[in-house]
Design brief:
Number of domains: 1
Number of strands: 2
Structural class: mainly alpha
Largest sheet: 2 strands, antiparallel
Radius of gyration: 19 Å
Order of helices and strands: HEEHH
Strand content: under 5%
Number of helices: 3
Strand order of the largest sheet: 1-2
Length: 132
């Protein structure tokens, strides 16, 4: 485990941190998990001991999930309806399933990505740490 110490003014790499968060890994080391169970934040990284108690994702992941799922589902629903004209219950069943599965997939990933963004930009309590 190699950990470097940087000054408070030095920037952290944004996109690698967001990408690690998307994978639900620690934005600092990319090894330890950010989440346990489904959406619960770990207090610290099990690999590099990065503190996650400062992370504040709040409603951001839910908002982004609804935004993406809504746009994808509506576009696909329009295409399917115009080209195939399925029965209403078939259309409902298909797109309810798509919306649920896509939401369950995206929600924890958006939460990890937002935490990675906060870490990279030194937002909230992440600004007081010297570990990068």
């Amino acid at each position: 485990m190699t950990t470097q110490t940087f000054s408070q003014d030095e920037e952290r790499a944004l996109w690698p941190a967001v990408r690690r968060g998307w994978k639900r890994k620690c934005p600092n080391c990319g090894e330890g998990p950010v989440l346990h169970s489904y959406l619960k934040m770990n207090d610290t990284c099990t690999h590099c001991t990065q503190d996650f108690t400062a992370a504040r994702a709040d409603d951001g992941p839910a908002y982004l999930t609804i935004l993406i799922v809504g746009h994808v589902a509506i576009a696909l629903m329009h295409i399917v309806f115009v080209h195939f004209r399925p029965e209403p219950m078939v259309l409902f069943s298909l797109f309810a399933t798509i919306a649920i599965v896509l939401s369950l997939y995206l929600l924890p990933r958006f939460k990890g990505a937002i935490v990675g963004y906060q870490w990279a930009k030194r937002m909230f309590g992440f600004s007081h740490e010297e570990r990068v």
